[in-house]
Amino acid sequence: MKQSMTLIPTLREVPADAEIRSHQLLLKAGFIRQNASGVYSFLPLGKKVLQKVEQIVREEMDRAGGVELLMPALQQAELWQESGRWYSYGPELIRLKDRHGREFSLGPTHEEVITSIVRDEVKSYKRLPLTLYQIQTKFRDEKRPRFGLLRGREFVMKDAYSFHANTESLDEVYKKIFQAYANIFTRCQLNFRAVIADSGAMGGKDTHEFMVLSEVGEDTIAYSDSSDYAANIEMAPVITKYDKSNETIKELQKVETKQQKTIADISSFLNTPKEKCIKTLLFKVDDKYVLVLVRGDHEVNDIKLKNLFEAQIVELAEADETKEVLGCSVGSLGPVHVSDLEIVADHAVEAIVNGVCGANEEDYHFVNVNVGRDFNVSKFVDLRFIQEGDPSPDGQGTIKFAKGIEVGHVFKLGTRYSEAMNATFLDENGKSKPMIMGCYGIGVSRIVAAIAEQFNDENGLIWPVDIAPYDVHLIPINMKDDTQRQLSEELYNLLGENRYDVLFDDRKERPGVKFADSDLIGLPVRMTIGKKAAEGMVELKIRKSGEMIEIHKDELLSTLAELFKNK
Ligand code: ATP
Ligand code: MG
């Protein structure tokens, strides 16, 4: 491709609104442009990279037995009403009406559509298992679209769905796709890890996320320092055992705690360790309020709370709701004398003796609070986030944290959708049964950003060979020099004939500009044709290592064959 014939609008300055390296560089090197918040165009270079990633995904999905199809982004509301998600999905679902007033959504995912197709077309166990996938644009009205392609409102996903007559078959396909995902991320050269995850709004059981380890990741991975245990912290169970101290139980007392709101404030004001404070929070769990207690140095894990109540929506009550229900503000809450609310507590709270909590009265706290005597709890369960230093849930070693970008997710859905939408089949005995399902997503456009985030230096992007938009960046130093131009054309054609994809910088720019752009764009090999063109000499620069090699044009193909040997 001649550079003068394509569109690669590189920028000199880092765009001000881009916070992380990958976002800055993809904009600066002219791969993408933002059209609206969380909505991007892939310019020619970006599109090529996206296609490379798509191709890897396609090959590995096909190898795992998947079959590609394409479903619509525009989905009728009726399907979502059948599954129930029309009502539970929340504001991320983009809803719209057609000219007849019929309701639609722009698909954030395709369980409903695929289930309706398979329900209509597959009736017998003889047609199962079946794994279908697509690579398609998804829409999610994210609360906080950010970091460029990492969290968009319109993005490219590979989503796959498998249908089975029994759980053994689901287990088998789940394993195959798990392996396909590992192959995909390995081929993309990503530093990743598979972790145990929560099934979220999808409603399933066995599930893993594939995380790219990165400082800019929004997820936290809890992993063991001495085994291969790794989980999203949302999911990691806490197995710590707490010993109740044998200090004498003292009399409950109400004390004034003017202006002291946070656990840290109270702990230092009353000279009590945080471990003796009872952190009390009012949550709205679907339609009812629940009082949740954890130890002062712990944090409530709302996913665990959600799973405990099998709820659709769990959120912290707003300040005005808290005032209305308990008569005070958030910093003064406590469980003492609360009789008309369900109270649940983390195991650690059970071990607190002579503790401290809010008195449900502005500026007052109770001290010497004891469970059983001063308040009752309906359930003691694991409700807190795991912390660094906690024992690993598999019993081996202690927990450490790392940040991760979720690039893929595999779920065993079971019959969540087939039952709701009546997708049944006839088994060997002619008995009608709901199909058992799995679903498997990959953030294809997110992978592009994750690769850019992992592979760059101060001068720009450094694409892995299999992902790079072109293989070689061909740069004549002086386009006005006939010898240089002729040799450039000759080698451009030669490489093309030998199936190298070459970007030929035929612009009449200064060499400095061309080199800076070349480093920014980050193709694996730069080939410079300068003064020694007359002798047939060219210079290769390896983008990744910075290594320079001067060779004769006759050695070009063999040298490149060596450099691209895994291609
Ligand atoms: P997240 O927790 O990051 O919001 P999710 O759990 O909502 O992800 P899934 O519903 O499992 O994501 O979607 C499958 C894959 O699609 C994810 O693993 C991720 O790689 C990608 N993905 C999800 N949301 C976005 C987004 N807003 N922008 C880009 N990619 C996304
Ligand atoms: Mg999400």
TrEMBL record:
One of its GO terms (cellular component) is cytosol. It comes from Bacillus aquiflavi. One of its GO terms (biological process) is prolyl-tRNA aminoacylation. One of its GO terms (molecular function) is catalytic activity, acting on a protein. This is Proline--tRNA ligase. Consists of three domains: the N-terminal catalytic domain, the editing domain and the C-terminal anticodon-binding domain. It is an enzyme of class 6 (ligase). It catalyses: tRNA(Pro) + L-proline + ATP = L-prolyl-tRNA(Pro) + AMP + diphosphate. Belongs to the class-II aminoacyl-tRNA synthetase family. ProS type 1 subfamily. The gene is proS. Transmembrane segments: none annotated. Residues 38-464 form the Aminoacyl-transfer RNA synthetases class-II family profile domain. PANTHER family: MITOCHONDRIAL RIBOSOME PROTEIN L39/PROLYL-TRNA LIGASE FAMILY MEMBER, PROLINE--TRNA LIGASE. CDD domains: ProRS-INS (cd04334), ProRS_anticodon_short (cd00861), ProRS_core_prok (cd00779). Its EC number is 6.1.1.15. It is found in: Cytoplasm. Its main location: cytoplasm. Homodimer. InterPro entries: aa-tRNA-synt_IIb, aa-tRNA-synth_II, aa-tRNA-synth_II/BPL/LPL, Anticodon-bd, Anticodon-bd_dom_sf, Pro-tRNA-ligase_IIa, Pro-tRNA-synth_IIa_bac-type, Pro-tRNA-Synthase_IIa_type1. Catalyzes the attachment of proline to tRNA(Pro) in a two-step reaction: proline is first activated by ATP to form Pro-AMP and then transferred to the acceptor end of tRNA(Pro). As ProRS can inadvertently accommodate and process non-cognate amino acids such as alanine and cysteine, to avoid such errors it has two additional distinct editing activities against alanine. One activity is designated as 'pretransfer' editing and involves the tRNA(Pro)-independent hydrolysis of activated Ala-AMP. Keywords: Aminoacyl-tRNA synthetase, ATP-binding, Cytoplasm, Ligase, Nucleotide-binding, Protein biosynthesis. SUPFAM superfamilies: Class II aaRS ABD-related, Class II aaRS and biotin synthetases, YbaK/ProRS associated domain.
